[in-house]
Specification:
Number of strands: 0
Shape: elongated
Radius of gyration: 25 Å
Number of helices: 3
Distance between the termini: 80 Å
Structural class: mainly alpha
Number of domains: 2
Order of helices and strands: HHH
Strand content: under 5%
C-alpha cells in the first residue's frame, strides 16, 4: 500500500512515523539515552564535589588544629583556593549536563579538575606531615 507521497505505509505508526527512526522514550536510534547518562555523570560530579569538600575541610582543620601559624594559614588558604577552583569546574559541568545535548568535557576543564584534585591531595599530605 502506498500513501500520497509514494512511500510505503507498512511499518509506520498511526501518525505516519517510522518507529525505528524515533524511540518513544526519547532515545536516538543507535544512540545513547539522552536522560540517564548525563544524570549519572551529574551525580558523579556531585559526589566528587562532596569528597573534595570533606578533604578540604579536614586539611584546613588539620592545618590550624593545635595553633595558628603562618604556614598553617597559608596551607588552609591554599586548600580553600583549590577547593573553590574545583567547585567552579564542577558547577559548570553540572549545569552543562542539564542541557538537552550536553557538550563533552573540554580538555582544559579536565586538566583543571585533575590538577585541583591532585593539589588538594598534596596539600592534605603536606599538612598532615
Amino acid at each position: 500500500m502506498k500513501d500520497e507521497t509514494g512511500a510505503g505505509a507498512e511499518g509506520r505508526d498511526q501518525e505516519g512515523r517510522d518507529p525505528e527512526a524515533h524511540d518513544p522514550e526519547g532515545r536516538e536510534p543507535g544512540g545513547r539515552d539522552p536522560g540517564l547518562q548525563p544524570e549519572r555523570t551529574r551525580l558523579a560530579w556531585r559526589r566528587t564535589t562532596l569528597s573534595a569538600t570533606v578533604a578540604g575541610v579536614l586539611a584546613a582543620k588539620q592545618a590550624i588544629h593545635d595553633e595558628v601559624t603562618a604556614a598553617g594559614l597559608v596551607g588552609a588558604a591554599l586548600c580553600v583556593l583549590v577547593w573553590v577552583g574545583f567547585l567552579r569546574v564542577a558547577h559548570r559541568r553540572i549545569v552543562g549536563l542539564g542541557t538537552a545535548r550536553p557538550a563533552a568535557l573540554t580538555p582544559r576543564a579536565a586538566v583543571v579538575a585533575a590538577g585541583c584534585t591532585i593539589a588538594l591531595a598534596a596539600f592534605a599530605v603536606a599538612v598532615v606531615v
